[in-house]
Amino acid sequence: MKGRAFAGGALLTAALLFGFSPASMAYEKAFYTQETKVKLATKTSLQVQLNGLFELENLSTREKTLLLPESTLTITAGSGSSKITAGTDSYSAANGFRVSELTNLPEKIVKFTSPTTVRSAADDKAASVASVKKIEAAEYTGEATVSGVKWYNVKLANGLQGWVSSKTAAVQSSPTALSLFKYGSLQYRGGFETKADGSLRNVLGLEEYLKGVVPNEMPASWHMEALKAQAIVARSYAVNTMNLTNTPSSQAYNGYTKEHSRSNKAVDETAGVMVKHNGKPIQSFFYSTSGGQTANAWDVWGSSKTTFPYLKSVEDPYETSSHSNWTDQFASGTILQKFGYNTANTVLYDLKANPKGENGEIGSVTAVTSAGTKTVSGNESVIRKLFPVDRYYGMLRSNWFTLNPVKSFTVQGSGNTVQQQFSVKGASIMGADGKPVSVQNSTVQIQTVSGPVSKEADPATIAVNGKGWGHRIGMSQYGANGFANKGSSAEDIVKHYFPGTVVGK
C-alpha cells in the first residue's frame, strides 16, 4: 500500500516517521584507565588509513563526526591549525583533532554516496536537521519506504536523529574486526590525536601500548621470564615518561603490526605490575648489554645518588652477547672532525680517554693537536658521539672503553727529526724531484726495501676497546635473559638490576 512504512517488520508510528529528536548513541568511545600517548611523527603532511569505525572530534569546537570505515585521511599542519582531508571533504581545527576507536558498535551503519541532507521526516521537503559529508557515517536505527523510496532513520555522532534517502545513502554492517589505524607501514591499536604543530600521537591504553613495545625491545623468542621482566620495567618507564615516542630514545614501539603472541602473554600475565621504590613506580631504565657490570647513574649521567639509589652498579654475570666485548677502529680525521677541528690543516698528535666513576667509564676525552689541546667532557651520550659508528645510531656502543691509538707513520722532518704520526694526509713530504709536495690523495706510495707499497694516508688505527651496548644503567636485556635461563623469575631479575626496590601492583 502506497505510503505505508515498515522498519524491522513493524509499522513505524507517525511520530517516528515524521519527527526527530536528539538521541544518545549506541556506540561508546573507548575508555582507557591508564591512557598513554605516543608520538609517531611530526610532519606538515601525512596520511592515515582507518580500518574500523572511528569518531572524529574537533578539539576546538568539540563537534563530533562518525568516520566511514576504510577511510584514508590526509593530515596537514600549518597556519596555526590542523586539517584533515578525505577526498573532497575536509575539516580544520586550531586545537587539532582526536580520532577515537569505538566500542559497542551498532549492528548497522549508513554510508553516503554524496553530501546528504538529514531531514526531520522521510520526505524530500522536510526540514533539514543536519548535513553530512561523503566521508561520514551514521548509526542505522530503522528504515521506511515512502512513495516507493526507501528512507533510513539515522543517529549522528552529535546525537541528532533524522532521515536520509536511499538515493544518496546505503546500509552496511558495522565492521567486526579489531579497530586499527595505519600510518606508514604499521597498524596501531587505539586512536590518535593531531595538532597544529604537525604532531601525530597514538592514544591507547597502557597495556595495549606495551604489547607494541616488548617484542621490539626484546626478541619474543627469549625466555618467558625475561619477557615478563621487560614488560614490568617498560611499564614502569612509561608511567614516568611524559613524552613517549616510537623510537629507541624512548621505547621502541611498532604498534599492533609487530606484536607477538609470546610477548603479549608476558604483558597480560604481568598486567599492572611495576617496579617501585618508596611506593612509587621508578625510572626503570634498560638497554642491550652491560659488558658484565652495570653502571652507576651518578657516574654516567651525573644523577643524584640519593634520588636514584636503585640505579646503582651491580654484577651482570650471565650475559651472552656479541656486544659484551668489542673493538671499533677510527681514523684521526674522523676524531678531529668530531672535536671541531679543520681536518685539512690540523694534525692529531695524541688522544687520551679519561676514566671516572666506580667501573672506569669514560668521563672525558682529550685530543692533543697541532692546533692546541681540547678536552670534551659530558655524560655517556656526549662521549659516545665523539666516536661515530653508523650501525649503532651514529655513536660508540658505550662509554666503558679504553683507547689503543697506533701511530702507523714515521715521518722524517727538517733537521733529520723523526716524528710518529697517525696520518700523513695534508702533510708536506719530499717528492721524487726533491721538492716538497702536499699529500692530498686518500692513499700514499711508500718506498720500502721490498719496493713501493700503497697505504691509506689516514688509516683507521685508533682502536677503541669497549664493553656493553647502551647507557648500562638499570636492566641489561641480554643479562635478564641470562638470569631467566639460569632459573630466575621475572621479579627476581628486576629486583637484581634495581636493588632496594619491590615488584608488584
Topology:
Elements: E1 6-7, E2 10-11, H1 14-17, E3 28-29, E4 35-42, E5 45-51, E6 54-58, E7 64-67, E8 72-78, E9 81-86, E10 89-93, E11 97-103, E12 108-112, E13 116-119, E14 128-132, E15 136-146, E16 149-155, E17 161-165, E18 169-173, E19 180-183, E20 186-188, E21 191-194, E22 199-205, H2 206-211, H3 214-217, H4 224-239, E23 244-245, H5 261-269, E24 274-277, E25 280-281, E26 286-287, H6 297-300, E27 326-330, H7 332-338, E28 348-356, E29 361-369, E30 372-377, H8 380-384, E31 401-405, E32 409-412, E33 418-421, E34 428-430, E35 436-438, E36 443-448, E37 451-456, E38 462-466, E39 475-476, H9 477-485, H10 490-497, E40 502-504
Helix pairs in contact: 4-5, 4-9, 4-10
